[in-house]
Structures are given as C-alpha cells and as structure tokens.
Amino acid sequence: MKTTENAVRDRKGFARLTLVIVLIFAVMGASIWAVSKKTSDDMADAAILNLNENLNLVESTVEAIQDSEAQFQRLLATELAAAGDPAAAVERLGKSDAAALISVVPEGADVGVSNDGAPFDPASLDFSGGGAIKGLPVSQAYVNAEGSWAYTVKCPIERDGVPIAELYTEYTFDAIDQSLPQGFYGQRAVLYLMDAATERFVLKPEGMGERDAGHVNLEDFYRANNITDPVILSMVADGVANRENVMFAHKVKGTEALCYLWSIGDGTTYLVGYVPMEAIQREAQAVNVALIMVASITIAAFCLCVILYGFNRRKQARARRAREEERALHAEQLAQALRAAEVANESKSAFLANMSHDIRTPMNAVLGFTTIIEKEADNPAKVRDCAGKIMALGRHLLDLINDVLDISKIESGKASLTLAEFDLGDSLAAAESIIAPMARDKGQTFCAEIRSVRHERLIGDETHLNQILLNLLSNAVKYTPEGGRIWLRFIGLPAHSNALEHLRIEVEDDGYGMTPEFLKTIFDSFTRAENSTTNKVQGTGLGMSITKSLVDLMGGTIEVESEVGKGSLFRVDLELRIPEEQAAGYFWERAGIKGMLVADASPAAHGAIAEFMEGTGVEVDGAA
C-alpha cells in the first residue's frame, strides 16, 4: 500500500514538476518573443535610417561633382561665345584636366571638332534617356576611346541670345571615384554606379566595398545575388522607370542585407549595391536593454530548471548526451567523408568531360588533316598546307587547354586579357578551317562572311575571340540535324568613337532550337537542353558559361534568340580598338589630303564612297 502511495505521490510530484517547467518555459518564451520583436523592429529602423544617411552623403558628393562640371561647361560656353570662332578656339584649348574631351559643333553643322584636333560626330552619342545635370542634357554612358566609362554633357553656345554652336564635354566616371569618401561600412558593403538608361555598371569605386566578379549590369547583379522574387523585380523596374529610390531586404550569401537602388540627380545614374544588416545595426540603448533582459531571463530559467530537475537525472542526462554526441560525431564524420568523395568524383568527372568537350573539335580536324597527308604524301603543296593547318590547330589546342585549366581564374575575376594586333579575316579563316569539315561530315552547309566592317586589323585578345567562335559554332554543328545550315557573320556597327570598331558576331543555325525555359539558364555551368532529340548530343554544358565569362571579360554583351524546331541565333557585340595608323582620318591627314573627286556614272558609287569617307575630314564631291 505504501509503495502504491509513494508511486502515486511520485507521479503527482512529477506532474506538478512538469507543469511548473512548462509554465516557466511558456513565460520565458513569451518574454523572449516580445523583447526580440521589439529589438528587431528597433534595429531594422536604425539600419534603414543609417543606410539612408550614408547613401544621401554619397549622392550629395556625386551631385556636387556633376554640378561643378555643369558650372564649368557653362563658363566655358561663355568664353567660347566671346571668341570669334568657337571651333577654332576649342582646338587651341588642347588637353584639359577638367574634362576628357571638349568638342564644338557649329550651328547647322553635322560634324564638329574636338580639343584634340580630331573631328567630332554628335550622332554617336545617345541623349534619348532625357537625363539632365543642372538643366544640361546628359548622354547615356559609354566606353570612350581611352577605354574608360564616360558620359557627355551638351550645352548651347549663345552670342547675344542667339545660338551659334553646341558645346559637348566628355567626363569620365573616374573623376567621381577619386572624390568619393574612402571606406564604406568597413569594406563589407557593395557599391556600384549604374547608368539608368542601359542598366550597365559604369563604376566600382575604390574603398567603397568588396568586389564581386561578374557584376557587369543589373541582370548580373540579380543573378549573382539570387534575386529572383517577381515582386521585388517589378518594384525595382517601376522605381528605375520613375527615377525613384528603391530599397528592400534580401538574404545575400546567407546573410540578411539591405539592397538598394539610389537615384542620383534626376535619375540618370543610380547607386546600386547591398549592405549586410549586421554592418549597419547600431548598438542603441534599446538593443542593450533587450539583450540584458533576454540573458537574465535565460539564466534564471536555466537555474530554476536545474534545481527542479534534480540531481538524480543528471547522470542519466550526461550519459545520454554523451551517447548522442558520439553518434552525431560519427554520423557527421561519415557525411563529411561522403561529401568529400562526391565532390572529388564530380570534380574529376567535370574536368575530364570539359576537356573532351572543348578538345574534341580541333582534334578531329587534326586527324582529318593527318589522313589527307597520308593520302596525298606525293603532293608537297597539299602536305605543306595541311601541316600548316595542323600547326595552327596545335597552337589553338595548347591555348584551349590553358584556358580550360584556368577557368577558375575567370570565375574568380582574376583572368586578364592579352591585347595584341590581329587580323579579323585570319580569325574567320581559322574558325572556318575547323568547323567546315565538321559541317561537311554531317551534310550541313556552312557560310561565313564579313560585312560593313571598316577595319579588319584590330587590337584585342585573339585567343579568347577564337574560343568564343569555336564554342558557338561547335554547338551549332552539334544541335543542327543533317542537311541544315549554319551561318557565321562579322558585321560592323556604328561605334562611339573613330578609334573603335563596333563588331557584331552572329552565329545562326536552323537546328533543333531551345525552349524559353532553357534560355533562362543557358549561360549557367553544366546546363544542356533536355529532350529526346538533343539527349543524343554529348557535352558537359560548360561551353556557354565559358563563352559568357569571356565576353564579359572583353567588355562585350551576348544575346540569344531561339525557337524550338526553327533554330537559334547568338549575337556577340564587342568594341575593339583600331590600330592608330588605321584610324579614320589618320592616313588622309598625314598625306595632307582634304578633298576628293569621285568620277563615276553611277550616283550610288558617289554615295558609297562618301559614306566610307565620313569622319575622315575629307570632303567628297561627285562628277558623272
């Protein structure tokens, strides 16, 4: 009977103990929740206020620089108006520390002159964005002849209230970089300057945050930081369209952060980036009090639970925890070993597959030329021709292997360009010598052309350009059925400067095509279109990722259009420097030629030659 009563008493005591513990933890949980909510709200408000203040400071600095540029331009316009001939006066100015380039276009004229003596064509600038600095129109951002991001401000030159010319002044974003304060949230933030019209990042200020590879434009910023919420994307798009400030919370690299797009002036330029919450949260008095309250409640609850729980459970709890920790440790060790083995296996497989993917194409060409040599051994000319092509392919294979082995450099932003003078026709011929045999083997038609390109001798990284061509063309051959057609086009487009050649590379095929869903991830690593037709094609899915990285490294853009069953079209836009001795006007100016007479019965010939000579400073007249 006594044993039964003791058992009942123990059960009642255990029930009361359990109830007390539950009540204590309920009170503690409610208190912690209330304090945590208040702390979170206070810290969020302080973080937003702190970030607003700092962004307003940077905005004021940039606007002050632009205001001083506008004031300088108005003063210069006044001085040029006082001169007899503004165009002649600007030529006498020479190089200026205040602006990268100063140009004057007389009223009614299409072309003007710059302070460096070169002709100036205002049609190469885009003022359609409607932006202005202190009432002066400002162009979209572009890469100038020196390879720096720049913008141009336009100002009228008036004499007695009558416009006599237009003053165009080019400023680089480097001047803004030099004037910004050093240090931004202890180098933990990220800050870029974005041209609102093109959404391209034109400046990563020194001392204003860490650097991330691949942030070339707003779309890359979204992709790098995994910003995919349609609501956020729509809010940002509306804000930029209305030239308003946008700020939102988002988890970046596993850390809560505040992302922002901060309008400067009338919205022609934006500050874009993010700041980790922990970097801007101030340790206000409210936060300290909340932390002390949470710590006190936790300690009190812990002590009370230990007393109520009793010494008789301590050994059991310790033994149980020791067993659980040991099992957890063994499980974690096994999981780590498994992950390490999987990573090593995937790395090895990816490396081997990647090498075979990119080496197979030129190696097949080498084997083909070797077969020709074997069959044509008595034909020295044929043997020399094939040997030369094999040598070129061998050099290309060596460069390709080095590029594949250095892919980590591209992804980490440590890759560099090797700039040298090269012939665009040689690049086309090299690509054709590799791709044409592959196309013939599949019964395909391969067409290549160069159209409207002003200069075929250019300065750039020929190895990277050839790798881009081979990646795009080899994929076109793989994903085009027998009897299909493949086109490679080099097209010349209007450039921002006479010192640059704006080159568009188009690779088109009438093959299988791609779905809209796959187009969204085509430039991600190890992605391939998956369907019953394309699954027959082998590949790592790394080629398009390498191509996108190389195009970004060369300062260009790549786009793709595709429709299932109709084929695909890739466009790569690059701006490459022209050798000085081939720049527009260099030959004619050196030879002292200022005029040209075209004698031809066809008016079309007159127009074609006049268009070709545009920008050289030579006047062209026609006669039948």
**What is the β-strand count?**
22
Estimate percent helicity: 40-55%
Alpha-carbon distance between the termini? 133 Å
Mean pLDDT: 79
The unreliable regions are: 531-540
What does this structure look like?
By secondary structure, the chain is of the alpha+beta class. It folds into 3 domains: 12-310, no CATH class; 367-582, Histidine kinase-like ATPase, C-terminal domain (Heat Shock Protein 90); 586-623, no CATH class. It is built from 16 helices and 22 strands. The chain has helices at residues 2-82, 86-93, 174-179, 218-224, 230-241, 277-280, 285-309, 314-375, 380-405, 407-412, 424-441, 462-478, 516-519, 543-553, 586-591, 603-612; strands spanning 101-106, 112-114, 119-120, 132-133, 136-137, 142-143, 149-159, 162-172, 190-195, 200-203, 246-252, 255-264, 269-276, 420-423, 445-451, 457-460, 485-493, 500-509, 557-563, 567-577, 595-599, 619-623. Strands 3-2-1-8-7-6 form a 6-stranded antiparallel β-sheet. A hairpin with a 3-residue loop joins β19 (557-563) and β20 (567-577). α8 (314-375) packs across α11 and α12 packs antiparallel against α14. The longest helix is centred in the first third of the chain and has 81 residues, at 2-82.
Any key phrases for this structure?
624 residues, 6-stranded antiparallel β-sheet, alpha+beta, Heat Shock Protein 90, 5-stranded antiparallel β-sheet, 3 domains
